Amino acid sequence: MLKYLGVLFVVALLMASIAIIDASSVSLEARREPSVYRANIYAPGRVEGVTRDIELRPEISGRVEEVCIKTGDWVEAGGVLLHLDRRRQAQQVAASQASLELAEAQLQRLINGARVEQRIEAKAMIKAKQAQLIQAERSWRRVSELRNQGAISQQEADDQQGQVERLQAELEAAQARSDQLTVPARADEVRKATARVSAAEAEHELAQISLDKTELRAPSRGRILDVDVEPGEIVGPDSPAPVMVLSDTSTLNVRAFIEEIDAPRVRVGYHAQVVADGLPDQILQGEIVFLSPRMNRKTLYSDRPDELYDTKVREVLVRMDHAAQLIVGLGVDVTILVPTAGSETEATGKPVP
Predict the structure, then answer these.
(1) Is 335 within 8 Å of 41 (Cβ atoms)?
(2) Structurally, how many domains does the chain consist of?
(3) How do 222-227 and 253-259 pair as beta strands?
(4) Where are the beta strands (DSSP E) in 109-252?
(5) How does 209-236 read in b/e, with b if 16+ C-beta sit within 10 Å?
(6) Are 138 and 239 within one domain?
(7) Residues 6+ apart with CB under 8 A from 1
(8) pLDDT per residue rounded down to tens, the chain (353 residues)
(9) Do residue 167 and residue 98 come from a single domain?
């Protein structure tokens, strides 16, 4: 009896081993041919425009003076969205403009040299000193003869000689002054004046940039999705919430998030079906046009019973055929239609990898 029980135990063990080997074989085949053993790919998604939501804040802090648009408006690239109080920046621009003009005038004056009137005056001064010196030298010659004859004192002769020497020095000073007004400016002086002009230009440009930043402009064409600011509020680059949100919604796409187990199976060109809770009777059609080259943390959930939470996802972008009824930011359910091994080439134009 025990012998028969032992035989039965061995047979049962062998059958269990065969079953395990068969299951492993099936599992391996499933991994090799996922399109045969797995269904289509399901993923949560979110509607977005041509661009993702662009959060806008002013580059400088200030009090809002005017809000130029409202929620839902379309704006072109460079369009003014709001004005900040700009009085301080405008005064800085005016002051820097005056400093620049002064520096340019000083440089130009240095290059041009003295005015014609100053040069004429300097030449006239030289002629006057020359005439005075000639007259003093004549007087000195007469005084010298009288001193030799003993007709005048030595003191009077010394006084006349001192006058001649003084006039000679004044003539040299007048000649130097005339030369200074006529010779070109020195190279180092021109460089110094030019540097002052460059510094003034930079200050003026910085002031103009600061003034321009009092206007918040649209970085690209798009639709204003949200306006969260009122005139009188103080806003800036560190504001907790963006003052406006912009997106180009001329075409709507769906960004879907594929879990790790299905990420390798998805391909550009696969067709997708999109369903929204608010449109239960409509199945919208689209096509995958972009695959993220990396996996990211999961941030969007669909609450499906079989959904994994502790996993990473691969982002894919689905270009919708007709989706005017969708809303930017709306959560949707995406079904990616995975072709079978025999039909994949026909569906995507690419062979099965």
Answers:
(1) yes
(2) 2
(3) unpaired
(4) 215-217, 222-227, 234-235, 244-247
(5) ebbebbbbebeebbbbbbbebeeeeebe
(6) no
(7) none
(8) 444 545 555 555 556 554 444 443 433 333 334 434 357 999 999 999 988 899 999 999 999 999 999 999 999 999 999 999 999 999 999 999 999 999 999 888 888 776 666 667 777 887 887 888 788 888 878 877 777 777 777 787 777 778 888 888 887 887 877 766 666 778 888 899 999 999 999 999 999 999 999 999 999 999 999 999 999 999 999 999 999 999 999 889 999 999 998 999 999 999 999 999 888 889 999 999 999 999 988 877 666 666 666 679 999 999 998 888 899 999 999 999 998 765 544 444 444 43
(9) yes
Same domain? For 141 and 182 the reply is yes
DSSP 208: H
The torsion angles phi and psi of 33, rounded to 5 degrees, stand at -125, 70
Residues 232 and 151 in one domain: no
DSSP 29-87: HHHH-HHHHS--EEEEEEEE-SS--EEE--SS-EEEEEE---TT-EE-TT-EEEEE--H
* Domain harbouring 71, CATH code: 2.40.50.100
Same domain, 217 and 80: yes
Domain that holds residue 236: 60-85+213-243
- Between CA 332 and CA 48 the distance in angstroms is 11
Structure-derived torsion over alpha carbons of residues 259, 264, 265, 271, reported in degrees to the nearest 10:
70
